[in-house]
Amino acid sequence: MRILHRRAAAALLCLAATSTFVSCGSSDEGSGGTTLDYWLWDDKQLPAYQECADAFHKANPDITVKITQTAWAQYWQNLTTQLTSGDAPDVWTNQSSYYPQFATSNQLLDLQPLIERDKVDLSAYQDGLADVWAKDGKRYGLPKDWDTMALVYNTTMLEKQGLKKAELDKLTWNPSDGGTLERAIARSTLDTKGRNGLDPDFDRKHIKVYGFLPEWADGSQGQNGWGDLAAANGFRYLDKNPWGTHYKYDDPKLAETIAWFKHLIDKGYAPRFDKQSTVANSELLSAGKGAIMVTGSWTISTFTDPKVKEKLAFAPLPVGPAGRKSAINGLADSVWAGTKHQEQSWKWVKYLGSADCQNRVAAHAVVFPALKSATRKALAAHEAKGHDVGVFTDVTAAKETFPLPVTEHGTEINPLVQDAVQSVVLGQATPQKALKDANDKVNALFK
Amino acid sequence: MGASTAIASPRQRGGSRTGKGASPGRPRRARDDRRAAWLFLAPALAGFALFYAYPTARGVYYSLTDYSLLNDPHFTGTENYRQLIGDDQFWNALKVTGYYVVLNIGSQMILALGLATLMHRLTRSVALRAMLLVPWLVPNVTVGLLWMWMLDANLGLVNHLLGAFGVGPTGFLTSPTWAMPTVAGINAWAYTGYTALLLYAGMLQIPRHLYESASLDGAGEWRMFTRITLPLLRPVLALVLVVSLIGSFQIFDTIAVTTKGGPVGATRVIYFYIYEQAFTYFHMGYASAVAVILALLLGVLTAVQMRLLRASRSDLA
């Protein structure tokens, strides 16, 4: 209470005095230089972008970039609050399912005229990455990186069960018998007596190591599991992407996929939803509590960390009835429409998307930069560290990727679909009914 | 309680003074008093107007608009309230909040009463009282994180210990059946000590000689508890109940840290729902409507409680 009063007094003082001498909380300094506020959420990427910011300042001594890193869980709330109070960062890292609401409320600067003026070559980026950020002839972001999906597994455990790398590189999957993926999962599940999932005496109620760790807090896209397999089964999220207006979560191909996941649980190969850990799957895998899971390329360093005791390796996603499908998602840098330093902000965004900055990011071997040339450099940096992560780039080369849906109401759709999927794996509802109900609610948002 | 008589008496005196009105000097002095009073009250009143009255009025106004935080609000009349009636998530939020309040207040009050009685009858140790306060001093977010790790189905200490007795792992925070009782339990753990201290302080006001004569008459501990402690503690008990009830309705942080409203809405309490609507979906207008309903509900509840409070004036007075 006392703090509130003091703050109020300070605010009143500022109000009264701004017109005369006192300056309150402005980020600019008087020496003619400009300070840009730049936001990102990934602490692992902070060192790479700090290096870019330093290099940028060296080349443009009159512009200083101040980077603020906020964890994902608070990032969007903080950003919204700042936007509401009219004091947002000049430039921020944007994500494809969050940016539409900022674009429609006129918070993002249209970069298209600037891109044309400065002749930025959008074809130098990985295919499809730039398209996500365009709507009605306007463009709201310049690509900075991308990520794809793959399997990560415990090599020691799988070798013990006689599963070789060659087999794991050619896994198949279908929703009726689960293909060779389900056999691999069954073989790597161990009960407390050490019998695997194919053993006739296998005790599905007392499990020591789960063959598969599914992700259930996966929003409306299932990027970390069900979405990729559903796409491999021929499922399409919506009528067109980006900017579709009719979702198809009632597609039987999705229902079959979710039913297969439920079947894994019933068999004892995956943890029951109501008995799963609150700890992230990556932690469980790293602690030897699971054998296989789906993961994204942004988490590579979590698994290759020398502190992880278990030996882990990556394998491509399985080939489904409609082929192999990995979600691809790209981040971009956007400029706030209300910035006082439009030209300087654009200069920084252009630098972030340039070969100079993206090559620096590549050298850190944390994410894959959006420029094709820088992607190759990142792969080489991983190899130099002794990490084989080619499975993530192979899918882009083979065009086995699909972009995640970009539409209005993205954040509202997330809990509707997530609750439906969770209610199925809990056994509260059938996949057909739960997904049909959710789909009706989702499409009602577009009316 | 004592407080109400303390406020009432000066007003009565002032009333009789102006009522007489004989001395010409006195009314002016009364006016002077008033001016000084207003002057002293002004900072607090300004703060109240700026930080309570104005935001409340604004909140009520927003509840009648389609405000999205980023766009200007447009007046939509009672649209938000109409939508609210048909919103099963809202009703679910009310239901699970009620469930939480019953579980939390129930367990917390019984435990606290037990602890306070034990302290009162057995020991007056200051060290013990300090220890009871420790959980209450830990920030809620830390409490949530601590218990989340200890109760984890795979890596948690609690399931490990239960496993030694042959009890299979329980997803305390991931099972729809267990999630809410677990959250209520965590908060009961954090607040029981504090509640017990409040009740203990109330018990200290009960004259000792009552217990002495009761025990001379051959009354046992249970009889003394039901016939002396409980009836004489009633006003304190009622006050503690009101405060914890309102606090209990405001459950948010433990849930934001541990379950985030899940699994499948089992812990999506009203405050968490308001937060989601406002800051995740940017439905500030709708969130305000839910908040207004909640405020009305708490108002009614408090009025009922206050009546109860007044009705049960201490038998000691």
Automatic annotation (TrEMBL), chain A:
**GO cellular component term, pick one:** cell envelope
Regions crossing the membrane: none
Could you confirm whether the keyword Transport appears in this record? yes
Highest rank taxon of the organism: Bacteria
Give the subcellular location: Cell envelope
Q: Which residues form the signal peptide?
A: 1-24
Q: Can the keyword Nucleotide-binding be found in this entry's annotation?
A: no
- A Pfam family name for this chain? SBP_bac_8
Which InterPro entries does this chain map to?
Bact_solute-bd_prot1, SBP
Q: Which SUPFAM superfamilies match?
A: Periplasmic binding protein-like II
**What PROSITE patterns does the database record attribute to this sequence?**
PROKAR_LIPOPROTEIN
Keywords linked to the UniProt accession: Signal, Transport
PANTHER family linked to this entry: ARABINOSE-BINDING PROTEIN-RELATED, SN-GLYCEROL-3-PHOSPHATE-BINDING PERIPLASMIC PROTEIN UGPB
Q: Which family does it belong to?
A: Belongs to the bacterial solute-binding protein 1 family.
Q: What is this protein called?
A: Extracellular substrate binding protein
Automatic annotation (TrEMBL), chain B:
| SUPFAM superfamilies registered for this protein in UniProt | MalF N-terminal region-like, MetI-like
One GO cellular component term of this record is: plasma membrane
The residue ranges crossing the membrane are: 36-54, 98-118, 130-150, 178-201, 232-252, 281-304
The record ties this protein, via CDD domains, to: TM_PBP2
Q: Assign the protein's first listed, main location to one coarse class.
A: membrane
Give the bilayer topology.
Multi-pass membrane protein
Which keywords label this protein? Answer: Cell membrane, Membrane, Transmembrane, Transmembrane helix, Transport
Q: Which residues form a coiled coil?
A: none
Q: Give the record's GO biological process terms.
A: transmembrane transport
Q: Which residues form the ABC transmembrane type-1 domain?
A: 90-305
Q: Which Pfam families match?
A: BPD_transp_1
Q: Where is this region: Disordered?
A: 1-30
> What compartments host this protein?
Cell membrane
Which protein family is it in? Belongs to the binding-protein-dependent transport system permease family.
Q: Which PANTHER family match?
A: ABC TRANSPORTER PERMEASE PROTEIN, DIACETYLCHITOBIOSE UPTAKE SYSTEM PERMEASE PROTEIN NGCF
What is the name of the protein in this document? Binding-protein-dependent transport protein
Name the source organism.
Streptomyces griseoaurantiacus M045
